Amino acid sequence: MPLMDGIEATKLIRKINNEVPIIAQTAYVLDNDEKLTIAAGCSNYISKPIYRNSLLSLINKYLKKL
Fold it and tell me: For residue 1, is it within any domain?
C-alpha cells in the first residue's frame, strides 16, 4: 500500500472497529511476522503461497463468529 503498511492500517481499523475480522496476508515468512500482525490487532495470519482450502477455512472460521 503506498501510504501505509498493513500494520498501520490494522491499528487504524482497530481504533474504529474492534470487532471486524482482519486476516493478514504476506509474502514474508519471518519468524516474528505472525507475532507482529497479531500484536497489531489482526485476527489471524496467512502467508504465501496461499492455498485455496486453507484460505477458505480461515475465512469460514471468522464468518461463523459474525
Answer: no
